[in-house]
TrEMBL record:
The keyword Iron does not apply. PROSITE patterns: ADH_SHORT. Its EC number is 1.1.1.-. The keyword Oxidoreductase applies. InterPro entries: KR_dom, NAD(P)-bd_dom_sf, Sc_DH/Rdtase_CS, SDR, SDR_fam. GO terms for molecular function: oxidoreductase activity. SMART domains: PKS_KR. Coiled coil: none annotated. Residues 11-182 form the Ketoreductase domain. It comes from Streptomyces sirii. Belongs to the short-chain dehydrogenases/reductases (SDR) family. This is 3-oxoacyl-ACP reductase family protein. Transmembrane segments: none annotated. It holds the Pfam family adh_short_C2.
Amino acid sequence: MREDTMEFEGQVALVTGGSRGIGRAIALKLAAAGCDIALNYRSATREAEQVAERIAGLGRRVELFQGDVSDPDVPQAVFTGVRGSFGRLDVLVNNAGITRDELLVNQSLKDIEEVLATNLVAPMLTVQAAAPLMLRRRYGRIVNISSSAASKPGRGQSNYAAAKGGLEAFTKAMAVELASRGILVNAVAPGVINTEMTDTIRSHGEEEIMRRLLVKSYAEPETIADAVAYLASPRNTYTTGEVLHVDGGLKMA
């Protein structure tokens, strides 16, 4: 990569849920553009170590932080580690997410609570923990990974849609709170992406999905990473409180 493309040189990013899929692509994209990476993951140690090896191969510093961000104690513990290892944080990407799709009448309370805890409460606690590191330097970029389900949910996605809809509202609230300190907060809402997380959705409803897509194909994780990289970059100086839909036109059907 040419030197003039290293726009994140000297910056540090934390990516949650960074061992696979979209999180992995985002971490690699930021590292390739010069960013040192704090990589959070829940349990996929081997995959996280492989991502870390690739980041190190790009000449960037990388530290792994294991922990389930749905545990209320983990976000603060992760940021204590980030502060100790890097001493700064410029970019936060809240990517960790889970699904427990089922019609509401069949959902257990556990299914509802776990989806809300991971997809909504965890990003709130993570931003709460990250903000002091950004506020002192009067600079930061926060990108929350939402979903097209927030505006165009499928059957059985009531818990997930509620969580992601809440995440988008939270994104706008944080944009209001943090803008005066140079911290921009946005969200990216992917559609159907080629990841393990969407395997079941694609296998059980491909015909319906393709009917709804204007662009008749699934996106790769790198497509989402490109969108995140712009919103997280120093080039973004005027976009905040926005939800960028990268969904092949799914929400328009």
